[in-house]
Every structure is written in structure tokens, then in C-alpha cells.
Amino acid sequence: MIKRLFDIIISALGLILLFPLIILLCYQIQVKLGTPIFFRQLRAGKKGKPFEIIKFRTMKYACDVNGEALPDSERIVPFGNFLRNSSLDELPGLWNVLKGDMSLVGPRPLLMEYIPLYSEEQSRRHDVYPGITGWAQVNGRNSIAWEDKFRYDIWYVENQSLFLDIKIIWMTMKKVIARKGISADGEATMPKFTGSKSTKVK
User: Fold this and answer.
1) C-alpha dist (Å) from residue 11 to 59, 98, 149, 182, 201
2) Which helix (H) or strand (E) element contains residue 127?
């Protein structure tokens, strides 16, 4: 209950205080990328329940001759890179937090299609609400392997506390300023998860 109250207060304050910035970014995205302004996608929430995540759109819509979306590296635009590097694309996620779909801190919400690929240990990441930031994000973000991300996620599930959440938020702000771990080597963001063997977190 304390964590939820913390989420409501901080997300509500964030949406109010950052409203002028959010409006400015909406305008810039409309000018540089057109509509829609927001990127919406079904992600896995607590207990694997699907919810619609909201982010600022950072990529243009472009497909190959077969109608398949081009790789992220070919669709992302300079302004989109700026939004991702600064994590400003995550601001609409405060609405997800306020609604109760997400928490400020927790394992990042991933695609629904990944759920069957998790080991029993990895699936424990869904024992808590997903977060805008998390222990994996402050320990490498997209620059670490999927297996390491999941180990950090499970560690958070086993050690979560309000003090840890505040620590992670503080570490996140420093990471955002330093712009570290934004993408994996050779990738615009992160390669798709295709399954792996989980190792118990120590």
C-alpha cells in the first residue's frame, strides 16, 4: 500500500509539473514524425496480465516490400534518438503508473509473446508490477544480455522495498544524465528475446 501511494503521488506530481514539457514534445513529434504521437502496445503486467503501455513515438512507419516493418535502426529518426537517449519517451508512462498498470520501479514490461519463452525462474519477474525503471535498468539497461536482465529482475522481486525504489530512481536520474546503456552493441535498442536458460540469482 505504501508503494502504491508513493507511485500515485509521484506520478501525479510528475504529470502536473511536466505538463508543459509533455505538450511541447507532443508538438515536436507531430511536426517531425506526424501522427500518432503516442506509441501504444500490449505488454505483460503483473501476473502476466496484458495492458497497453503508452510512450512517445520515436520511429517512423516504414516497411519492406513484403510489408514487414524495417529494423529499428532504419526507422528511428534523430529526434527519436534524442527522446530515447534522454528517456523523455517514457514520460507518458506516468499515466500507466497513475492508472495502476505499472509502478515507478519494477521489471520493465516486455512483449506478451515472450511469456511462453520464460523459464520458471524468469517468469517470477511478473510477481510484481512492471516499472518505468528498475534494477536491471540501473545496472546496464539495454547494454547487458537478456539473462543478466532477468537475474536483476528476480533480485529486485526478492529484495524490493521503498528504500530500494528511491535508490533506483536516484540511480536512474544519474544514468539518464550520463546516457549510458541505451542500446545493445550493434542494435538500435535491444535484440528480441528468443528464450534462454535461467540461473538462480545469488
Assistant:
1) 25, 6, 25, 23, 30
2) none
Q: What are phi and psi of 170, to 5 degrees?
A: -65, -45
Binned at pLDDT 50, 70 and 90, residue 71 comes out as: low
Question: How many of the other CB atoms lie within 10 Å of CB of 132?
Answer: 26
Residue 115 or residue 192, greater confidence: 115
Q: Is 58 exposed, middle or buried (0-12, 13-18, 19+ CB in 10 A)?
A: buried
Task: State how far Cα 71 lies from the chain centre.
Answer: 19
Q: Which residues, other chains included, contact 18 with Cβ-Cβ below 8 Å and sequence gap of 6+?
A: 91, 94
pTM for this model (two decimals): 0.82
- 135-138: long-range contacts (C-beta < 8 A, 24 or more apart)? 135/164, 135/168, 136/107, 136/108, 137/108, 137/168, 137/172, 137/175, 137/181, 138/168, 138/171, 138/172, 138/175
